[in-house]
Design goal:
Pfam families: HMG_CoA_synt_C, HMG_CoA_synt_N. Keywords: Transferase. It is built from 14 helices and 18 strands. It is of the alpha+beta class. Strands 1, 4, 5, 6, 7, 8, 9, 12, 13 and 14 form a 10-stranded mixed β-sheet that branches. The longest helix is centred in the middle third of the chain and has 21 residues. The radius of gyration is 20 Å and the shape is globular.
Length: 398
Amino acid sequence: MYGNSAITDVQVGIDKIDFYTPNHYLDLVDLAQARGVDPNKYLIGIGQSKMSVAALDQDIVAMGANAAEPMLTEADRQEIGLLVVATESGIDQSKAAALFVQDLLGLTNNLRAIEIKEACYGATAGLQLACDYVRSHPGRKALVIASDIARYGLDTPGEVTQGAGSVAMLVACDPGIIAIEPESLYESRSTGDFWRPNYSAEAFARGKFSEEVYVGMFEGLWNKARKQGMARPESLQALLFHIPFSKMGRKGLRTLGDGTITEADYERLTERFERSIVYGREVGNIYTGSVYLALISLLENDESLNPGDRIGLFSYGSGSVAELYFATLMPGYRARLEPQRHQALLESRERLSLTEYEAMFSAKLVTDGSEQEIKHSDCRDDAPHYLAGMKGHERQYR
C-alpha cells in the first residue's frame, strides 16, 4: 500500500551514474585571446578552463542515450519502469525526448517516459520523482537523464559559460552509490534572471541578478536546514552546488565562511568543493546535469571519502526553483565508478580552433521539411548514438 512505513524505510537513491560530453572542445584561453580578454578573467574570474561544443549529430537525445548506454545491463533495461529526461534544450514542443531515448536504449514499453523542464533544476525534480516512484515500486528502477546544450551566442557576455553534456542516473532500492534522504527543503519563486523564448536558439540572462537569487535561495534553505537539524555541518563531509561555472558554486559556499560554520568545517567543505569542480571546469555548463557532474567529479577525484559519509546537494534552476537535500555514500560505491574511462573521455576530445568552433556553433538543422544527412562526429566507443539527419520534419537517429 502507498504510505506503508515499510516502503518509506527502504533506502532509495542513485545505484549507477555516468556522463557523456561531445568529442570537441574550445580552450578558453583561445576564446579569451580572440575576444580581446585577459585569459585570467575566464580561468580565474569565471573559474573555467574549457567548454565542450556539440556538433549537430550530438543533440540532447543522442547525448542522453550515450550517457546511459555504458552503465545499463540487460536486467536494468527490463526493470526500468520510469524514464525521465530533464532538459531546457528540448527538441520538440510535444513529444518527450524520453521517448526517443527509450527507443535508442532498447528499453521495454512497460514504462512511463516523460520530459521535465524547469531550467537547471529539472534533473533534481526528476530524481526526486524517481525516488518516490521506486519507494512505491521497490521491484522497479527509474532512469533519470539530464541533457543540455548551453548556448548564449557568439561574442556575448555569456559565451564563456557555454558547454554541452549529459548525466544519466539509475535510481533503485538499496542503491550502490548514494542513498537519498526522503526529506528535503525547497523553494519556488517567479524571477526574471534567465530565460529562453520559444523563438530563440540562445538564452538571455541577467547575470548579476541571477547570482543574487542563487546565493539568496541557498542561504535561505541552508538556514532552514540548520534550524530543522538537517544540515549538521560538523558531520557533513561535502557540499555540492549547481555549477554553471565554478565561480557560482564558490560564491554559494563562501556564504558559510563568515562564521556561519566552524573554520574546520568550512575548510573541509572547501577542499572537497575543489574536487567537485574538476570535471565541470573541463566540460562547461551543462545546465540540468551540472550538480550531478559535480557529484561524479567529487567521488572520482577524492580518495578520502568513505562509505557512510554524508553529503549535501544544492540544486538551482533559474526562474527560479531551488532544493537542498542530503545523501549518504553506500558501501562499495567506488566499484560503481569509472574514473579512468571518464578521464579518457575528456582527454580524447578534439581541440577546436576559433573558426571551427564558430562554424560548429552556427550549424543548423533544416526547418523546411527537406532531407538532411548529418555526419557522425564522434566515433568513440562511448558514443554509439547520434542524430543521422532530418526527413519530413522528423529527426532520424541511429
